[in-house]
Amino acid sequence: MKTLQIAYRNICRNKRRSLMTVLAIAVSSASVLLFGGNISSIIYTLQTGYVRTSGHIHIYKEGYSKYGATNPSAYGMEDYGNITRIVDSDPVVKPQLRLVMPFLAFQGIAGNFTADTSQSFFGMGIVPSLFEKLMTWDQYHLKVTKDEVATGLKDEDLSGGVIGYGMAERLNLCGDLQLADCAVPPARKEPADSAPAEDFSALTRDDFPPQASGKAAATARLDLLAATSGGAPNVVSVNLRKAMKMGSKAFNEGLIIMNLDLAQKLISGRGTKKVTGLMVQLNRTDNTELVRRRLQQILPQNTYEVKTFGEVRPMYGQTISMFLTIFGFMALIMGVIVLFTTINTMSMSVMERISEIGTARALGLRRSAIIKQFVGEGFLLGTFGATLGVAAALAVSFVINVMEITWTPPDYANPVLLSIHMFLQPLFLPCCWLGLIAVATLSSVIPARNAARMAIVDALRHN
Amino acid sequence: MPETEFVARLKDVTKTHMLDKVEIQALKGITADIPRNKFNVIIGQSGSGKSTLLNLIGCIDTPTTGSIEVCGKDVASFSDDEMSDFRARHIGFIFQTFNLMPVFSAYENVEYPLLINKTPAGERRERVLATLEKVGLVDHRDKFPNELSGGQRQRVAIARALVKNPEMVLADEPTANLDHRTGTEIIELMQNIQAKDKTTFIFSSHDKNLITNAEDLFMIMDGVIL
Ligand SMILES: Nc1ncnc2c1ncn2[C@@H]1O[C@H](COP(=O)(O)OP(=O)(O)OP(=O)(O)O)[C@@H](O)[C@H]1O
Ligand SMILES: [Mg+2]
User: Fold this and answer.
1) Given CB atoms, is B15 within the 8 Å cutoff of chain A?
2) Alpha-carbon span A315 to A445, nearest angstrom
3) A15: contact with B, CB 8 A cutoff
4) In which band, very low, low, confident or very high, does the pLDDT at B4 lie, cut at 50, 70 and 90?
5) What pLDDT is attached to residue A301?
6) Residue A51 domain-assigned (yes or no)
7) Any idea where the domains of chain B sit in the sequence?
């Protein structure tokens, strides 16, 4: 008869107690898995969000990340076509590469003349076709929001753009963009003399006459004011095709994405066309470091800097470490619960079986075999509990994922799906399962050793 | 195992128990040779030291002073594991309270010592069935201890002690928890087996009327052999 078979019979002796122990371990196991699965979803959703909007790697002119914020034009990139070709054709990078896209990030003031509203904004010039592809990256097959995400912009629509939903509301574009559930700001009473006769849109009206489109497509015109790289103020008009719900509150209330051509017209004026940098998106996040190192080798030394999305968005790493800390703490607590539950159960089991232990020892069973026997019982309790926990966690996560519950993360404007994914980290589930079994097994060592240490005659007298 | 005349030889053996800092001298210098292939009987009143003596012979306890030779071996030098293996091979126990494993069937209880001393599976089955036959319980082999009467349990225990063909079987008051008739039957069973197989038995009792025809009788009183 095998140790585990005997162990199984022994744990069946006190069914209620064993069941309670198994349930306690199962609850711990399920909570660790569900919480960990949720954290893992959040982290991978965050990563997916970053990669879908800004790729894995950015290439900037050397010094941009340190000084670019205060003087973006001085760190603009001119030969981006060249660099794109280098990246595109490198034999090491190419197999990992999904796309390279130039982008121009800037700030300015956007004005809606018809509604007499304006606000500052972050501008992002992109290549629409590439950006559309950028946003479909889906290494982890995650559904982030209920809404579909696409700008709908076309490369040939040179003055096209999309705006954050919140910003559209603020600028009173609800009507023009045909927005549903739109928060319209209350009508303002302006002192007559402060009302400008003409706003700066008048400056551009002649350059870009409003397109005489017959169809009733939702569109709105905004005038964008920014400083060119030369330092002179410049104005262009963007034809907004859409208002998009963006996750981050800052973007939702302040981002305008537009055709790179339009952004360059605004920032470069009549000078050389520049971009802020290049976004490199890879097929898999895992290859980010590899590609980064390669890019550092093949790009001209000391002229360009190569940054991963983790460096560009330090919040990513910070969020991960915060969640991992919370998870570690919770896993520790659950581990301790399993530890004490098992020690308690096994100690009671030992107490009840002292004379059996004495008998087995008298029959010639070695101390180590006694330990093995009780540890086997702890192992079985742990295995049953942890496995039950895995099953429960799988069931609960399935239900939660199907229900498509949403939540709004801190500093987000729009809800994202609350999901639990336990397989994104392939080792996560097996490690939790094995970890709890190990805790249950190891915690039965203490009572088992006590059982084995007893003097045989004392154990036999214990009746 | 060297063929000696005696299965156990005790020389000036004392045993002192500690009970809450109070020393209780259970054995006060015992020198005795226990003959092989006999039905040895130790008679003594309650508290006279019978169990203590059998525990020492059975290598589940060690003397305070003096020396014990069991089956020709000076067991004092053994490590705990060596002692366990020695018991597993050479010593069978029958207890007053039967001490069967409640999670094992009658068959499995008898098989248990063979698992401990690693007897091969085929031989195991043969011997378990043969031994159960000897005690007349083959038909009850799949029953669990709680499904058996006291007498039947003690028969299973006897089979468990005999199944490994030990050098000796120690039976510490095996009838004390049985009614008189069943007790007598158990003693007769053991004596019959002993007569047939020449197994060495060391049997203890406080009731000298229980054994009328004992050939090797040791009387023990207050920790000394008379
Ligand atoms: N483990 C122990 N700790 C303390 N005292 C003990 C221990 N074992 C035995 N004794 C004491 O030693 C003496 C001899 O005990 P032992 O059990 O050997 O006698 P016994 O002849 O077997 O008695 P009984 O017929 O009641 O079983 C008794 O006074 C008993 O109380
Ligand atoms: Mg006794």
Assistant:
1) no
2) 43
3) no
4) low
5) 81
6) no
7) 37-62+76-225
Check A460 against B60: CB less than 8 A apart: yes
Residue type, A274: K
Atom number, ligand 1, closest to the C-alpha of residue B53:
18
* pLDDT the model gives residue A212: 44
pTM across the whole model:
0.83
Domains in chain A, number: 2
Contact B99 A9 (CB under 8 A): no
Burial letters B145-170, b for 16+ CB under 10 A, else e:
beebebbbbbbbbbbbbbbbebbbbb
Residues 336-365 of A with CB under 8 A from B: 355-356, 358-365
> pLDDT per residue over A32-60, tens digit each?
999 999 999 999 988 998 899 889 999 99
> What pLDDT is recorded for position B212?
66
Whether A343 and A444 share a structural domain: yes
- Kindly list the residues from chain B whose CB atom is less than 8 angstroms away from the CB atom of residue A358: 99
- Among residues A189, A191, A169, which one has the least CA distance to residue A178? A169
Cα B212 to Cα A268, B171, B190, B191, B209, distances in angstroms: 122, 17, 14, 12, 6
pLDDT number for residue A200:
56
Cβ <8 Å between B99 and A356: yes
Buried b / exposed e over A429-444, threshold 16 CB at 10 Å, is: beebbebbbbbbbbbb
Report the distance separating Cα A13 and Cα A147, nearest Å: 55
Q: A301, A328, A349: which is the final residue of a domain?
A: A301
Q: Is A239 exposed, middle or buried (0-12, 13-18, 19+ CB in 10 A)?
A: buried
Residue A57 located in a structural domain: no
The CATH number assigned to the domain with range B37-62+76-225 reads 3.40.50.300
Mean pLDDT of the B130-152 span: 94
Ligand 1 binding residues, C-beta < 6 A: A 457-458, 461; B 17, 19, 24, 26, 44, 46-52, 206
**Ligand 1 atom nearest B48 alpha carbon:** 21
- Beta sheet of B73-74, edge-to-edge order: B22-35, B6-19, B65-70, B73-74
Q: Is the pLDDT of residue B11 over 80?
A: yes
When CB atoms are compared, the residue of B60, B101, B111 closest to A362 is: B60
Q: What is the pLDDT of residues A144-154, one digit of tens each?
A: 776 667 888 99
Enclosing domain of residue A367: 2-46+318-460
Residue B222 CA: which ligand is closest?
Answer: 1
Has the ipTM of the complex gone over 0.85? yes
Chain A CB within 8 Å of residue B88 CB: yes
Collect residues with CB below 5 Å from ion ligand 2. B 51
Residue A245 lies in a domain: yes
Q: Residue B146 corresponds to which tokens in the numbers above?
A: 């709680």
Q: Tell me whether strands B39-43 and B216-221 are parallel, antiparallel or unpaired.
A: parallel
What pLDDT band is residue A1 in, cutting at 50, 70 and 90? low
Cα–Cα distances in angstroms (integers) from residue B122 to residues A136, A339, A394, B149, B183, in the given order: 67, 41, 45, 29, 34
Does residue A52 sit within a domain? no
- Of A261, A445, A412, the residue nearest A339 (C-alpha): A445
Decide if A463 touches B, using CB distance below 8 A.
yes
